[in-house]
Amino acid sequence: MKTIRLTMAQALLKFLDQQYVSFDGVETKFVKGVMGIFGHGNVTGIGEALERSPGSLEFVQGKNEQGMAHAATAYAKQLNRRQIYACTTSIGPGALNMVTAAGTASVNRIPLLLLPGDNFATRQPDPVLQQLEVGHDYTISAADSFKPVSKFWDRIVRPEQLMSSAINALRVLTDPAETGAVTLALPQDVQAEAYDYPVSFFEKRVHYIERQQPSAESLSRALALVASKRKPLIIAGGGVKYSEASAELAKFAEQFGIPVAETQAGKGSLHWANPQNVGGVGVTGSIAANRLARQADLIIGIGTRYSDFTTSSKWAFAEEAAFLNLNINRMDGVKLDGASLAGDAKESIKLLSEALQNSGYSTSYETGEVAELNAEWKAEVDRLYALEREDGFVQTRALGVINETIGEEAVIVCAAGSLPGDLHRLWRAAGPHGYHMEYGFSCMGYEVSGAFGAALAEPDREVYAVVGDGSYLMLHSELVTSLQEGRKFTILLFDNHGYQCIHNLQRGNGSDGFGNEFRYKEASTGRYTGESLPIDFSAHAKALGAATYRAENAEQLRDALIAAKAETRTTLIEIPVLAGTNTSGYESWWNVGVPAVSESKKVTDAHQAMNEKLSEARVY
To answer: How big is the CA angle at 81 (ends 17 and 420), to the nearest 5 degrees?
Structure first.
């Protein structure tokens, strides 16, 4: 057997450099490179390997471990999970900073390879700098924190263990049903240990992402279920995009006259102007989609996780409604006690369509019923996009200007606050990859990092981070990395002086408002009830090296967007907006748990209202 002597870190990079995926006959190099921040736990291991023997792997220097891992997640998401960046950190705090990003990737089913440094396997210098000591179990380290948020986890305590572990890591990363964060904890000393690896381990490997077809039995059951219903509603999730099934979905919906509602991950599956597209559904849904959801006798969920925002905490649907779930992931397939059609979304749609066509299936929607609801909703979006107030800039008006100005080829990236709700309801998405929303984890701080990742993935498209002031303050470090890498994107910073989304939520459930606005603390009350903090976000971004603009009305915003598009470096547009001018309602509900006992009657009244809604919702 021919061998080559390498350190474990060198062998890992050499292996990653030879991984490819094949989807529909198109072969793609799977690992583009490595993002990293070096410390004592990785600089002389993976750091040396990246310096001396990276192969064709690129290196991107991160500025915050969570931020760079979000960027890697966004990169993979934007490229439909066909290519990734791995992420390397030191031990201790550097490693733990990636845990949140691991949860984000796993919840959203995005491949993310994490390579945190770990304690010495030999234990000779214990406790090493930044080592977590657990008195009752000395095998535990900070890297164990990744276990609950990883789809595969391993610790490489001997260099030869790398071979079986790496192959299993790639198995999970390239599995469309089970992908997510994969963590290989790499002890600092083992990274630098040598082993005679078989040369065959480093041969080119192609991982075939195959389109799994549902079984004949499950297809027969699905056909019988659909045939027994006359008012179905399709809910398109992210699985439609990852399967590249938009054309098949459009044909299926049009052929049988079935309206299509979209989740956050699925938005853009159909062009916004498609007659069958009734918009977002659930807590942040349109009036058209939510009314149809209440009337539907069958929900056909395609590639959706059925989060509480999609189902309005399981209140959105009629009690007698049945569920047919087309999903590659079997856990999602059985949600809401639904009938499972396990398989690739594109293949499942095609097979179900053929079967329904052969059976002569038709729905009982009245002529013009869906069109009338869509017209009503379009008028409401037009109204909100044009809404003006004398005392300041309305958030929905600002979004309207952005939607009309940046063009259909642009990519918007968002994750948290009130903006995802408004975008889900109002944004007129023109295609599957222009609407990049991380709403599985709704992770504050994803937006700037995610926009950088999306810009890395598609450098020829204009990318926009749509972010509130709260999320921007939480994490913005990869703005600097974008300048360093020469990958421009534009930050659209909506400044409403606080965590206003949660401020609205608490006030809607009986609170007078507490702890969510960015105000000075008043000595007399000990609470944040003073004047708003005068944060100059433009000055901050400019100090980091970005181009900056400020827009306080529609005309200024339009001009700033046009100017930003001409910029060659990352740009921030500061947009002061009136707090509370986001959207809400539209026949939806969200169960957040309101106290049963309170000194405030408003809170106990809200608790009673919650119980009334809960009595109308499904229990599982």
So the answer is: 140
